[in-house]
Amino acid sequence: MQRTSVRTSETSKPMISDRAFGLVALLAVLPVFFAFAVAGQPARGRAAAISAGMIIVVARFTWEQRKCIWYWMTISCFACVHTAVVLLATWQEKRYPGFALLPIAAADFAVMYRVIRFIQALFKARNRHSGGPRTFDKGDRY
Amino acid sequence: MRSAELDLRSPVVPPKNVKFCLDASCTMTTQLPRPSDNEKFCTAQAFKKNMVSLGLDVASLGLSLVPTGGLVRTLATTVTGIVLTGTSSALSAVGHHTAEAGVAFANGVVTSYPFIAVAEEVGLKTVARALPVVGTIVGGVELGYDGWLAYQDYQACSAHR
User: Fold this and answer.
1) What is the least distance, in Å, from the CA of B32 to any CA of chain A?
2) Which of A22, A44, A93, B54 is most buried, by CB atoms within 10 Å?
3) What is the DSSP track for A60-113?
4) Across the interface, do A97 and B64 touch by the CB < 8 Å criterion?
C-alpha cells in the first residue's frame, strides 16, 4: 500500500499528512508572494513563492538527511540558484489558471530531489570506503 | 459659492462620507459606514472580471489530491493534453482569453495525471507522492495572484469613479 504521509525520520511516526503539509507550506510561502506584490511585482512574487514552496517540499521529502552537512549545503545552493533566477529573469504579468504551472513546478521539484538523491548515493559510496558518515551528531566528524 | 454668501439660516446637511461633525447639526455615531454604491459597483466589477480565474484556482486546490489511474488512462490523457494545449494556443492567438483560461485549466488537470502515473511507473514514487503537495502550493499561489489582481482592479475602479 502506498504511503500517504511523510515521515520526519526513518524511525519516527508520520507527524503530518501530505495534504496538511501542502496547506502549511502554502501558508508559509504566501507572505513571500504578497511581499513582492506590495512592492509592485506580483509576477516575480509568484515565481518566488512557488520556488520557495518547491524547496520546502524537497526538504520535507528528503528530511531524513537533515543531519548531514552536504544536505544543507545542497539546499542552500538550491536557494541561491532560485533566488538568482527569480531576481534576474523577466516575469510576465500573465495569468496561469489552476494547474497550468504544475508541470514546471513538478519538474523543478523532481530535479532537486534527484540531485539530492544522487549526492546521497555519492556520499554513501564514499563513506563505505572511509568509514561512517559525517554528521552533526554527538561530536562526530564534520 | 463663496463663504460670505452662505445662508446661515438654512440647515447644514453634512456630506455622506464625513465621519465626525463638530457643529450641532450632526450627531456623533459609532456605526460603521455602509458600503457606498461605488464600492458595491467596483466589487461587482472586479469579481465579474476575475470570476473565471478565481473559480479555476479554487477548483485546482480542490482537485490537487485526486488519485491517478493506469497506463491506458495515462495515454488517453496525454493525447487529450496535447490537443488541449493546441486549442489553448489557438484561442490565445485569436484573443478569446476567457476560453483560453478554461482550456488551459483543463489542460493542466489532464496533463497532471499522466505525469503522476509515469512517475510511478518509472519508479519515482516519492516524486509521484509529492505532486499533490506541489499542486496545492501552485494552486494556492495562483489563487493569491489572481486575488491580488482582482484587488488591483477594485482599487483602479474606485480611483476612477
Assistant:
1) 27
2) A22
3) HHTGGGTTBHHHHHHHHHHHHHHHHHHHHS--------GGGGHHHHHHHHHHHH
4) no
Q: What secondary structure letter does DSSP report for A16?
A: E
Does the structure show a pLDDT above 50 at B3?
no
Q: Is A53 close to B134, i.e. CB distance below 8 A?
A: yes
Return d(Cα B115, Cα B135) in angstroms, integer: 12
Which grid cell sits at B139? 494552486
Does ipTM surpass 0.85 in this model? no
Return the SS3 of A15: strand
CB-based contact A141:A134 (threshold 8 Å): yes
Structural domain boundaries in chain A? 17-139
Q: Which of A27, A45, A28 is nearest to A36 (CA)?
A: A45
Partners of residue A68 on adjacent β-strands: A135
Nearest to B56 among A22, A97, A105 (CB): A97
**Does A94 touch chain B if contact means CB atoms closer than 8 Å?**
no
Residue for grid cell 482582482: B150
Higher pLDDT, B37 or B105: B37
What residue in A sits closest to B65 (Cα-Cα)? Answer: A19
Taken as a whole, chain B contains a residue count of 161
pLDDT in tens, B56-73: 667 666 665 555 444 554
Residues B126 and A99: their CA atoms lie apart, in Å, by 20
Using CB atoms within 10 Å of the CB of residue B31, give its burial: 0 to 12 exposed, 13 to 18 middle, 19+ buried: exposed
From residue B77, give the alpha-carbon distance in Å to each of A110, B63, B83: 21, 16, 10
User: pLDDT tens across B121-154, in order?
Assistant: 555 667 667 777 887 888 888 888 888 888 888 8
